[in-house]
Write a structure and sequence with these properties.
alpha+beta, 2 domains, six-stranded mixed β-barrel, 16 helices
Length: 413
Amino acid sequence: MSIQLEVAVAHLVNRKRSTLVSLSGVVLGVAFFLAVSSLMRGSEKDFIRRLIDNSPHITVYDEYRSPRPQPAALRWKSGAVEISNVKPQAETRGIRGYRQSLEFVESLPGVRAAPVLAGSAVLAFAGQEEGVSLSGVVPAKMKTVSTIEEKMVEGTLDDLTANPNGIIIGKGLADKFLLRIGSAVSVVATGGERTMKVVGIFRTGNASYDQDQTFVLLTRAQAMLDRPNRANRFVIQLADPYGARDIAKRIEDTIGYKSVSWSEASEDILSVLVIRNIIMYSVVSAILVVASFGIYNTLSTIVMEKTRDIAILKSMGFHARDIRTIFVAEGLIIGAIGSGAGLVLGAGLMKVLGLVAIKPPGVTEIVYLPIWWGPEQFALATGFALVSCVAAAYLPAQRGSRVHPVEILRGMG
């Protein structure tokens, strides 16, 4: 152990009460920093997970981001005559050649995609009628991009394959119409009326979705909506959700149709999360800043009380940098020990918080506080604590290094 470190340890040991107070401040600061930041980051991760897992990472629509230019404008770009109010050619809505476009999308690495034909229909049963959203899907592909299979309370998506005239409805709609598995309902859409059999019931917890959404086979929806061989959107999931914006741009540049990533669709929400993180880190960092004042006060007191000792050390050949090293080492020792103990206490608080069960009003399921155990949280708490402690020790260290031994020793004589 170097002489500077020995002196630093001796100062801290001789002032046990002040050292323990400073150490306690760092321990509590690190623990609360870790607990609060992990709770906030956990809630953010949980929110984003729910946001991106319960909705497509990318959705491709059968529309263009910008209006398609008219043939005359393409042929005569600098024409002197402008033709306005040109009625677009009537055509069946949908993604043209959707099978070829789907093959391209699925060829991209880490991409899972499913075609969907979405439209509106009217469901009638026992004299009751309800407007619903009708989605034609391919069950095998839909299960890879949606969590709807996990939300099924009766039946499965594969039951649509087994029964081409089958329909899957939400729990809210089933309760409203008193429907159950095997019930026959009439579905009226653009292509006419068809009697269908309820083969599955799902419950997502979203009341409007559970009462409005229905699923049928893609080929059946094409017939019912009078859109043969068409799909009007692709539902896409990625291995890396945070790469959705780049993949969406690549898809749109290649096939031309509007591709919207989850991050583009939720820009306002993500901005709120960024602001919330800034506020959170500002608040929890203030805890460690306050704790660092205890270190500053302790070391300043040592400098004042040990002025004579500092003068003697300098007269023995210690340089100003050696004196600075002694007091910075004291701050570093307090920061290191306090960080270690704070991490242990913080991990304990995180464990306790993770066991807290909450049952929000009107919700049947019990939820637990989301805690983020990412290693960066521990590294950030440790790093900020050490920086705060060293910074708090630097000013007293500078003051101690400026002590003039001649003046102090002459005053003693």
